[in-house]
Amino acid sequence: QLQLQESGSGLVRPSQTLSLSCGVSGGSITSGDYSWSWIRQPPGKALEWIGYIYQNENAYYNPSLRSRADISLDRSNNRFSLQLTSVTAADTAVYYCASRIVDLDAFDVWGQGTLVTVSS
Amino acid sequence: DLQMTQSPSSLSASVGDRVTITCRASQSIGTYLNWYQQKPGKAPKLLIYGALSLQSGVPSRFSGGGSGTDFTLTISSLQPEDFATYHCQQSFTTPYGFGQGTKLEIK
Protein backbone atom coordinates (compact mmCIF):
# COMPACT_ATOMS: atom_id res chain seq x y z
CA GLN A 1 0.00 0.00 0.00
CA LEU A 2 1.65 3.19 -1.21
CA GLN A 3 1.94 5.95 1.39
CA LEU A 4 3.33 9.46 1.08
CA GLN A 5 4.47 11.88 3.80
CA GLU A 6 5.51 15.50 3.37
CA SER A 7 8.17 17.18 5.48
CA GLY A 8 9.82 20.58 5.47
CA SER A 9 9.72 24.08 6.82
CA GLY A 10 6.31 25.52 7.68
CA LEU A 11 7.49 29.14 7.61
CA VAL A 12 9.46 30.77 4.81
CA ARG A 13 10.55 34.40 4.53
CA PRO A 14 9.54 36.38 1.45
CA SER A 15 12.03 36.12 -1.45
CA GLN A 16 13.53 32.95 0.08
CA THR A 17 13.25 29.35 -1.19
CA LEU A 18 10.56 26.93 -0.07
CA SER A 19 11.88 23.37 0.31
CA LEU A 20 9.69 20.33 0.87
CA SER A 21 10.32 16.61 0.72
CA CYS A 22 7.96 13.67 0.24
CA GLY A 23 8.87 10.27 1.65
CA VAL A 24 7.47 7.28 -0.23
CA SER A 25 6.74 3.94 1.44
CA GLY A 26 5.11 0.81 0.09
CA GLY A 27 6.54 1.44 -3.35
CA SER A 28 9.57 2.70 -5.23
CA ILE A 29 10.06 6.07 -6.87
CA THR A 30 11.91 4.19 -9.62
CA SER A 31 8.64 2.53 -10.67
CA GLY A 32 7.51 3.35 -14.19
CA ASP A 33 3.89 2.98 -13.04
CA TYR A 34 3.87 6.41 -11.41
CA SER A 35 4.90 10.00 -11.71
CA TRP A 36 5.52 11.97 -8.55
CA SER A 37 3.60 15.19 -8.12
CA TRP A 38 3.23 18.33 -6.07
CA ILE A 39 -0.13 20.10 -5.72
CA ARG A 40 -1.00 23.06 -3.51
CA GLN A 41 -4.14 24.68 -2.12
CA PRO A 42 -4.08 28.29 -0.90
CA PRO A 43 -6.47 28.93 2.01
CA GLY A 44 -10.06 28.88 0.74
CA LYS A 45 -8.98 28.46 -2.89
CA ALA A 46 -8.84 25.79 -5.56
CA LEU A 47 -6.22 23.09 -5.88
CA GLU A 48 -3.30 24.02 -8.15
CA TRP A 49 -1.04 21.50 -9.87
CA ILE A 50 2.63 22.49 -9.47
CA GLY A 51 4.34 19.74 -11.46
CA TYR A 52 5.47 16.14 -11.57
CA ILE A 53 8.54 14.08 -12.30
CA TYR A 54 8.98 10.63 -13.81
CA GLN A 55 11.46 7.98 -12.71
CA ASN A 56 13.63 8.94 -15.72
CA GLU A 57 13.82 12.45 -14.19
CA ASN A 58 11.73 14.11 -16.92
CA ALA A 59 9.74 16.82 -15.14
CA TYR A 60 6.78 18.98 -16.13
CA TYR A 61 5.72 22.19 -14.43
CA ASN A 62 2.82 24.62 -14.35
CA PRO A 63 3.88 27.66 -16.41
CA SER A 64 2.03 29.88 -13.92
CA LEU A 65 4.96 29.39 -11.55
CA ARG A 66 7.24 31.14 -14.06
CA SER A 67 10.12 28.64 -13.75
CA ARG A 68 10.39 29.04 -9.96
CA ALA A 69 9.65 25.36 -9.26
CA ASP A 70 12.08 22.45 -9.33
CA ILE A 71 11.16 18.84 -8.54
CA SER A 72 13.86 16.24 -8.00
CA LEU A 73 14.23 12.57 -7.05
CA ASP A 74 16.32 11.15 -4.20
CA ARG A 75 16.62 7.50 -5.16
CA SER A 76 18.80 6.50 -2.21
CA ASN A 77 16.13 7.64 0.27
CA ASN A 78 13.07 6.86 -1.87
CA ARG A 79 11.79 10.41 -1.73
CA PHE A 80 11.17 13.34 -4.02
CA SER A 81 11.44 17.05 -3.33
CA LEU A 82 10.10 20.45 -4.30
CA GLN A 83 11.98 23.72 -4.30
CA LEU A 84 10.12 26.95 -5.02
CA THR A 85 12.27 30.06 -5.29
CA SER A 86 11.51 33.75 -4.71
CA VAL A 87 8.38 33.08 -2.68
CA THR A 88 5.77 35.70 -1.84
CA ALA A 89 2.67 35.69 0.34
CA ALA A 90 0.77 34.29 -2.66
CA ASP A 91 2.70 31.04 -2.20
CA THR A 92 1.14 30.47 1.23
CA ALA A 93 -0.77 27.21 0.89
CA VAL A 94 -1.17 23.63 1.99
CA TYR A 95 1.28 21.66 -0.15
CA TYR A 96 0.47 18.06 -1.04
CA CYS A 97 2.65 15.42 -2.60
CA ALA A 98 0.76 12.86 -4.64
CA SER A 99 1.40 9.89 -6.87
CA ARG A 100 -0.05 10.03 -10.36
CA ILE A 101 -0.75 6.50 -11.55
CA VAL A 102 0.14 6.56 -15.22
CA ASP A 103 -2.46 4.00 -16.34
CA LEU A 104 -5.34 5.91 -14.73
CA ASP A 105 -3.87 9.37 -15.37
CA ALA A 106 -5.14 10.45 -11.96
CA PHE A 107 -3.71 11.35 -8.55
CA ASP A 108 -4.49 8.19 -6.61
CA VAL A 109 -2.48 8.53 -3.38
CA TRP A 110 -1.91 11.79 -1.51
CA GLY A 111 0.18 12.81 1.46
CA GLN A 112 -1.59 14.44 4.39
CA GLY A 113 -0.47 17.91 3.30
CA THR A 114 1.70 20.49 5.00
CA LEU A 115 0.91 24.18 5.53
CA VAL A 116 3.61 26.55 4.35
CA THR A 117 3.26 30.19 5.36
CA VAL A 118 5.28 32.91 3.66
CA SER A 119 5.79 35.74 6.11
CA SER A 120 8.53 37.93 7.49
CA ASP B 1 -4.81 27.19 -20.35
CA LEU B 2 -7.74 24.85 -20.25
CA GLN B 3 -10.26 26.09 -17.64
CA MET B 4 -12.50 23.90 -15.49
CA THR B 5 -15.72 25.34 -14.07
CA GLN B 6 -17.86 23.55 -11.52
CA SER B 7 -21.46 24.24 -10.62
CA PRO B 8 -22.90 24.84 -8.21
CA SER B 9 -20.18 26.20 -5.93
CA SER B 10 -22.20 25.02 -2.94
CA LEU B 11 -25.18 22.76 -2.46
CA SER B 12 -27.42 21.88 0.48
CA ALA B 13 -29.02 18.44 0.54
CA SER B 14 -30.41 15.85 2.93
CA VAL B 15 -29.39 12.29 3.71
CA GLY B 16 -30.95 10.03 1.10
CA ASP B 17 -31.12 12.70 -1.61
CA ARG B 18 -29.77 12.20 -5.12
CA VAL B 19 -27.36 14.98 -6.07
CA THR B 20 -25.51 15.88 -9.24
CA ILE B 21 -22.50 18.17 -9.56
CA THR B 22 -21.43 19.51 -12.94
CA CYS B 23 -17.99 20.28 -14.34
CA ARG B 24 -17.43 22.04 -17.64
CA ALA B 25 -14.16 22.25 -19.58
CA SER B 26 -13.30 25.26 -21.74
CA GLN B 27 -12.43 22.88 -24.59
CA SER B 28 -13.04 19.23 -25.38
CA ILE B 29 -11.09 16.83 -23.18
CA GLY B 30 -12.60 13.52 -24.21
CA THR B 31 -13.00 11.52 -21.00
CA TYR B 32 -9.82 12.81 -19.35
CA LEU B 33 -11.68 13.93 -16.24
CA ASN B 34 -11.24 12.90 -12.62
CA TRP B 35 -13.28 13.59 -9.48
CA TYR B 36 -11.98 13.92 -5.92
CA GLN B 37 -13.64 14.22 -2.52
CA GLN B 38 -12.03 16.38 0.16
CA LYS B 39 -13.07 16.61 3.81
CA PRO B 40 -11.98 19.52 6.03
CA GLY B 41 -8.32 19.36 6.96
CA LYS B 42 -7.75 16.26 4.83
CA ALA B 43 -6.17 15.50 1.47
CA PRO B 44 -8.36 14.90 -1.55
CA LYS B 45 -9.39 11.32 -2.30
CA LEU B 46 -9.78 9.96 -5.82
CA LEU B 47 -13.37 8.88 -6.55
CA ILE B 48 -13.74 8.65 -10.34
CA TYR B 49 -11.14 8.52 -13.11
CA GLY B 50 -11.54 8.66 -16.85
CA ALA B 51 -14.90 10.39 -16.33
CA LEU B 52 -16.73 7.09 -15.79
CA SER B 53 -14.59 4.62 -13.82
CA LEU B 54 -15.04 4.11 -10.09
CA GLN B 55 -11.78 3.98 -8.12
CA SER B 56 -11.28 0.79 -6.13
CA GLY B 57 -12.97 0.93 -2.73
CA VAL B 58 -15.31 3.81 -3.57
CA PRO B 59 -19.00 3.07 -2.89
CA SER B 60 -21.18 2.37 -5.90
CA ARG B 61 -23.55 5.23 -5.03
CA PHE B 62 -20.96 7.47 -6.70
CA SER B 63 -21.02 7.61 -10.49
CA GLY B 64 -19.49 9.77 -13.19
CA GLY B 65 -20.75 10.73 -16.61
CA GLY B 66 -20.09 12.88 -19.61
CA SER B 67 -17.47 13.42 -22.28
CA GLY B 68 -16.13 16.28 -24.34
CA THR B 69 -16.77 19.42 -22.32
CA ASP B 70 -19.59 18.52 -19.91
CA PHE B 71 -19.27 16.10 -17.01
CA THR B 72 -21.28 15.05 -13.98
CA LEU B 73 -20.68 13.46 -10.61
CA THR B 74 -23.81 11.88 -9.16
CA ILE B 75 -24.36 10.54 -5.66
CA SER B 76 -27.45 8.35 -5.80
CA SER B 77 -28.38 8.38 -2.10
CA LEU B 78 -26.45 10.75 0.14
CA GLN B 79 -24.90 9.31 3.26
CA PRO B 80 -23.69 11.38 6.26
CA GLU B 81 -20.05 10.76 5.33
CA ASP B 82 -20.59 12.24 1.83
CA PHE B 83 -20.82 15.83 3.05
CA ALA B 84 -17.56 17.24 1.76
CA THR B 85 -16.08 19.32 -1.05
CA TYR B 86 -15.82 17.77 -4.50
CA HIS B 87 -13.24 18.74 -7.12
CA CYS B 88 -12.99 17.91 -10.81
CA GLN B 89 -9.60 17.75 -12.55
CA GLN B 90 -8.68 17.45 -16.22
CA SER B 91 -5.85 15.14 -17.20
CA PHE B 92 -6.07 15.86 -20.94
CA THR B 93 -3.06 18.16 -21.04
CA THR B 94 -0.60 19.94 -18.79
CA PRO B 95 -0.91 22.16 -16.91
CA TYR B 96 -3.44 19.93 -15.19
CA GLY B 97 -6.30 22.05 -13.86
CA PHE B 98 -8.86 21.66 -11.13
CA GLY B 99 -12.30 23.13 -10.76
CA GLN B 100 -12.95 25.56 -7.94
CA GLY B 101 -14.75 22.91 -5.90
CA THR B 102 -18.36 22.23 -4.88
CA LYS B 103 -19.12 22.22 -1.18
CA LEU B 104 -21.89 19.78 -0.30
CA GLU B 105 -23.57 20.68 2.98
CA ILE B 106 -26.29 19.15 5.12
CA LYS B 107 -29.69 20.81 4.76
Structure description:
The complex is a heterodimer of chains A (120) and B (107). Chain A is mainly β and 120 residues long. Helix content of chain A is 0%, strand content 53%. In chain A, strands 2, 4, 5, 6, 9, 10 and 11 form a seven-stranded mixed beta sheet that branches. A four-stranded antiparallel beta sheet of chain A has the order 1-3-8-7, with no helix packed on it. In chain B, 0% of the residues lie in helices and 50% in strands. The mean pLDDT of chain B is 97. With 107 residues, chain B is an all-beta fold. Chain B is built from no helices and eleven strands. The interface between A and B is medium-sized, with 21 and 24 residues.
Concise summary:
The complex is a heterodimer of chains A (120) and B (107). Chain A is an all-beta fold and 120 residues long.
Oligomerization: heterodimer
Mean pLDDT of chain B: 97
In terms of DSSP E residues, the strand content of chain B is over 45%
Computed CA radius of gyration of chain B, to the nearest angstrom = 13 Å
- Largest contact between protein chains? A-B, 21 and 24 residues
Distance between the termini of chain A: 40 Å
What is the overall silhouette of chain A? globular
Contiguous helical run count of chain A? 0
Radius of gyration of chain A: 13 Å
Q: What is the percent of helical residues of chain B?
A: under 10%
Mean pLDDT value of chain A: 96
SS element count, helices of chain B: 0
Structural class of chain B: mainly beta
Largest sheet of chain B: 7 strands, mixed
Could you name the ranges of chain A where pLDDT drops below 50 across 5 or more consecutive residues? none
Helicity range of chain A: under 10%
Q: H/E element string of chain B?
A: EEEEEEEEEEE
Shape of chain B: globular
